[in-house]
UniProtKB/TrEMBL annotation:
This is 16S rRNA (Cytosine(1402)-N(4))-methyltransferase. It comes from the Bacteria. Transmembrane segments: none annotated. The gene is mraW. InterPro entries: MnmM_MeTrfase, SAM-dependent_MTases_sf.
Length: 187
């Protein structure tokens, strides 16, 4: 069976092509950025830690890819940099190889998610990997689930992919697909 992280990539790969713009909202070590850069025309990747940009720059260089804009800013500023895109990915929580006290925060995560829902093209998709095991992870999990449950069903489909029999707090995946612009939802 696919792990949630692998399904997140497959879910986005289905809508990406050489004309697409994609967003990595949590660059970290650049694994997701590299994945998106291989499929999309242009990628915008965000992180608040310089270390993430250094790691990701190196990873992209080794792969010979130059279609990524690495942005040292919080994803809550996303719409200032990229108004329209086909796919977005979030890997919430902390960067394993860095300071584990630097974690994504519910308030800014929700701001970014809101901007992603607005910026997605119709037919576009967002994948959100949720980590609930660290301190604060449960609050962020609840905030994200609350947010996505309230997305209007005429405009978005939201799905959850989660193991049901695993002990502790396994990471899980929320998948969002945009069906139409929210303002058009009654028309
Ligand atoms: C779980 S890691 C991401 C892993 C990454 N996707 C990869 O492939 O290696 C979470 C990242 O989110 C970053 N982060 C925390 N708050 C952020 C924010 N407001 N905007 C963007 N990134 C943020 C952290 O610095 C950390 O690098």
């Amino acid at each position: 069976m696919k792990r949630p992280i692998h399904l997140s990539h497959d879910f986005l790969a289905e809508v990406l092509d050489g004309q697409s713009v994609a967003v990595d909202a949590t660059m970290g070590n650049g694994h997701d950025t590299l994945f998106l850069a291989r499929l999309a025309k242009q990628v915008y990747a965000f992180d608040i830690q310089e270390q993430a940009l250094t790691k990701t720059r190196q990873r992209l260089k080794e792969a010979g890819l130059d279609n990524v804009r690495l942005i040292l800013a919080g994803h809550e500023e996303l719409s200032r940099y990229v108004p329209r895109f086909k796919a977005a990915i979030f890997n919430l929580g902390y960067l394993p190889s860095a300071d584990k006290s630097v974690i994504t925060q519910p308030q800014t995560t929700l701001q970014a998610l809101d901007q992603v829902c607005q910026g997605l093209e119709v037919g576009g998709r967002a994948a959100v990997m949720i980590y609930q095991g660290h301190a604060g992870g449960d609050r962020e999990r609840d905030a994200v689930l609350d947010f996505v449950r309230q997305l209007p069903q005429q405009a978005f489909t939201v799905m959850l992919y989660k193991t049901l029999n695993q002990i502790n707090h396994p990471p899980f995946l929320v998948m969002i697909e945009k069906l139409k612009e929210e303002k058009d939802q009654n028309g």
